[in-house]
Amino acid sequence: MKADVDKVVAPGISVECKGGDVLLAVENVSLSFGGVKAIRDVSFDIREGEIRAIIGPNGAGKTSMLNVINGFYHPQQGTITYKGAKRQAMRPYVAASSGIARTFQNVALFKGMSTLQNIMTGRTLKMRKGILAQALYWGAAKNEEIRHREVVEGIIDFLEIQHIRKTPVGKLPYGLQKRVELGRALATEPELLLLDEPMAGMNLEEKQDMSRFVIDVNEQLGTTIALIEHDMAVVMDLSDRVVVLDYGQKIADGTPEVVQKDQNVIDAYLGVAH
Amino acid sequence: MSATLTPAAHDTVPKLLLRNAVAHAGRPAMREKALGIWQSWTWAEVKDQIRDLAVGLYVLGLKRGETIAIIGDNRPRLYWTFTAAQSIGAIPVPVYQDSVADEMAYVLAHAEVTFAVVENQEQVDKVLSIADRVPTLRHIVYDDPRGLQKYDRTRLNAYEEVQKIGRDELAGNTRTEEWWRSEIALGKGADVSVMLYTSGTTGKPKGVMLTQDNIVRSAENANLFDRFTTDDTMIAYLPMAWVGDHIFTYGQGYTGALCVSCPESPETVIEDRREIGPSYFFAPPRVFENMLTQMTVRMQDAGRVKKGMFDYFMGVARRAGEKVLNGQPVGVKDRLLYRLGDVLVYGPLRNRMGFSNLRVAYTAGEAIGPELFSFFRSLGINLKQLYGQTEASVFITLQPDGEVFPETVGKPGPGVEIRIADDGEVHFKSPGVFLKYFKNDEATAATKTPDGWVRTGDAGFVDQRGHLQIIDRAKDVGRLNSGALFAPKYLENRIKFFPEIREAVAFGHGRDYVTMFINIDLTSVGNWAERNNVIYASYQELAAHPDVYAMIERRVDELNLALSKEPRMAASQIARFLVLHKELDADDGELTRTLKVRRPFIADRYAQLITALYDGSRDCHLKTEVVFEDGRKGTIEGHMKIVDMKTYPGGAAPAPVKEAAE
Hints:
The complex is a heterodimer. Chain A is an alpha/beta fold. Chain A has helices at about 1-10, 60-70, 90-95, 115-120, 130-135, 140-160, 175-185, 205-220, 230-240, 255-260, 265-270, and strands at about 20-35, 35-45, 50-55, 75-80, 85, 100-105, 190-195, 225-230, 240-245, 250-255.
């Protein structure tokens, strides 16, 4: 089986992809919770400007992988190289301030706050003025807030959510909440955006909208995107390269066309007699 | 400054632009909400914007007499495109922005457009997808550049680029501005100013050619009729391809130098309207229906105190509201109570709807239910009806202040004459009478009589007060087998007043009794379902729910009781009905783009259901094809129950054969 995997990962396959330099490299990462091995010796890279999909059956370790990348989980083995800096463990806020943003599988917004306020929270790391100046909302702090508001309004326009600007997000339908969460991630002006199942639970129209936003973010803002997604049609349409995990191991890596035809991937998804 | 302006020297819209840019240079002409903040342009700024665009379009090859399509939501830049095109003698052809590709292909090809100015990527994609069917199309200009970076640029330009081409030309040659002004001076009142495609309840859309005279004079008359001044404002939110928007926001905006505001997006209209507080508002009955539905839903969710207050003061409003608005005598107690209600209930409601500064509101396009109409008037909103059509540049009759009767559509507007033909059809003559249908002399001849009148296609009569009353489309008015009058739209409008019912289609011509298709209103019934723990996954499931059926049955019964008291309509009580398994939709061809029911199409498509309504069946199974906006097709399958209704004595309604009553 190992040999087959190597064939797919063979260098050269991804050369034609639009990605530039390697932005993030995961090398031989293993992660276990007690006796449960969530990720076993996985290596892959994400190149600047590409849309990289991470797919796999349930429990394959996809979300764990994202959590490793943004520093929420600390792998027992292996290293992660982000923008040339090698590390094994990182705190989430360091990841956030170094340009990694994410959305969650189960929407994690402040339900009682409005869309506008939620997206504003994404600017927290960029706020320079002290808490007192901000509370007084005076002088430089006021100007700063106005500047941030401008960025946030740009995002609201970009995601076409003007009509829910002042609506508490708890009242919004799921598809819109997902969009607000994307907006909050964008507010940090990320270089690398991690999307955990951005289309889960959406109907066809919402999926199409979300796909368009993902493409727009990638093309217009130049943001590198790594996404986990179950809808194969979406993955194959959107992504430049796909890495496939199964039982914590990488079983394939390459362009959508290559991965689609890979026997290991077909087996993992359709099931095979062991 | 507030002034009404004299016509004569300014017989075209571009000339009015030049006038306003001098006479009202510093006053706001347009507003648009962008990034959450209202931006505004003065008349002087608007003139510069339009000039740059006009010169740019000319440089790109737009010639006098050519047509230019305009597709998108109400955006200032698209409105400027109208004037820019007109200033150099081209003819704008606005197209409904939600048209599916096929409809758009037909209109663009028929109108022989050479340019298309569109709002965004969605419209660019649509136009590109049909470009091979529009051989005359040379160039596409888009407003919002988002997502379009990678497109082939040979025939595609950003709006800014076109304006920049214009500005460069103006900067490079000082005589260009002079040339542009001389182009405007070449324009005459008799020139075709715009071509509006009617959405037509039957057949292919027809291109109605309106002249500059039509637009300018109709708009001027309307401004005089309601004494509009430059202080009046309105919000532009109705499709630009509809004659209503073209006259109200474009025509009246230019002739009266009124300020027009464009909402941030179609979804934010209500909020934006609240912020702007227009003094002049226009909406088809459907918009008012939606407002009432939303209000009813909100009040059902409100606390007991609020609800009690609402119910009590709405009672007062029903008794006294309209009389107060009409200046009729009202008892002291009711007058005081109405004042109190105004502070506690009506004022806040008006504010919620964005009507705090409202002076005049019109509804037209379809007949409005009298109850719905009275409801808004009783809140102190000066809602009036007008009757018009594209071929008349809107205005035929309007209700003057103080002469508002819910059942009529008012008196002929300034300069309008009407007559009733022998068959009951309403004919008119006015300054707004269209030139002709584009490339369709046959239809023109069928509509314009040799002696200069225009056939409206509507049946009606003039009452003793000189007010016109419309019964129905002339061709839709029929007879039951008993000989009793059958006016389907009248019945549909009556039933649609109930918030639970969104759309209805009545049948009865040449039949023994009247039957009806009903569409439930998802907002209202959905809210009811939530409150009553009724679980549903789709429109179809909710529509078929037994409790929903029972609720609709009660409504139909109420209507029947009301109809039994009207001598002319008693025979038209609904004998049987069913709730459709899908919403009638313009994308499926069941409604026009202005959301009018297309009867022949529906009769054909649902022939099976109509048969079932008349053969005594108790249910019917149907499979329907639906078209999505991108042109893909799917099917919806449904099983519908048919309900027999009790009819009340009063008219000469022959009781239908009742097979196993529910």
